[in-house]
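Invent a record, attention on tokens:
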Amino acid sequence: MSFRRELNVDLYELTMAQVYWRRGIDGCATFSLFFRGYPKDRGYYIACGIDPVLEFLEGFRFVQAEIDAIRATTPLADEFIDSLVALRFRGEVRAVQEGSIVFADEPVLEVTADVMEAQIVETILLNTITTATLLATKASRIVSTAAGRPVVDFGSRRTHGEDAAMQAARSGYIAGFAGTSNVKAAARFGIPAVGTMAHSFVQTFDDERAAFEAYVREFPDASTLLVDTYDTMAGVANAVRVARQAQARGASVGAIRLDSGDFAELSRSARAMLDAAGLHDVRILASGGLDEHSIAELVSSGAPIDAFGVGTRYGTSADAPFIDSVYKLVELDSRPIVKLSSGKQTHPWSKQVYRRLRDGIMTGDLLTRSISPMPKDYPHAMLRTVMKDGRRLKAPEPIDEVRDRVASNLATLPDRYRKISNPYRYPVEYSPELDIPN
């Protein structure tokens, strides 16, 4: 049986909710979602997943199938479970714009609502924003090192489940990828669908050249030929023959794909062979085990690769597969709330993040209380009210607007904070009113 996303709730959120319900605890709570520190070699985050979270909150409810599942699997009281039928999210959400650059300890999103409503949505908010942000940040690093060459998401088969595959496709496109191989994601999000062929396709035919000929005849204007099933340079030679035949009848081969071996050496040999045959417009696509580090090496070596396909190492964010994300209570009935656990202290109060730019370049952020006046030297407020009384204030943004925001925001962040290894730490300061008590 399939269930709605509302059932993606940790049990402790429901047990705490029953205590609140039983005792009439209905205070106005603010929870802040932020990231503690950075994974390896990260110096910034691309905030992502905010629109899917707002969609979830706006439609939040437990239907009968979820009620029955909760009754069958938890120790909760029947009368409390019955009350969940009427539960809706009626709170307020403040958030940064999706695609914004954010930094460690800065709130990406704050939820203000009845304490039970705000608490019970914790898991899905953290899961959605953390995964999407992790992947968007990874993708932005890959796009940066590709230096203008298109990058395509090929990661669906290796991500940690179908939901992660969809998030990888969306996050990658927002961060600058040219498209995705995932047809479902392409259809749902309006992302260009991109595909080539598998080694199994080549192996199905009696010989490699026959496979290439069949594919080009079927797709005369959109063929990418995978040339490394047997011997890569022999595969390039077969692709050259098929491409020249296609050219003679008015068709064309768009690209060849290298999927294994020494990409720098193979791409140079392949480019020379293609150019010698007059096939200057046939591009070279490389895929297989690539990430920002290996792409940076290829680009700096001058390898004549025109585009990259990234799969496993992108879709799993292999070098840094998680973010230490948290969703913490910071204010309750206009009282400051803190956590004092060693190494996990939290700053009190609902917050605002103000950003300082000089000549269009980011120079520092300042965190204050959300009700404090804008500081003179930090004129850009990052968090905006996006939901009131459980309803979004604006329609969802087109995905290409979010994509443009990522590109424009990254252009304002100095290179030293965007380095793919050992980046500098961007300055984030706290107003004294957010001091943690001794």
In short: The CA atoms of residues 111 and 247 lie 59 Å apart. The longest helix spans residues 122-146. The chain has 16 helices and 19 strands. The two ends are 51 Å apart (CA to CA).
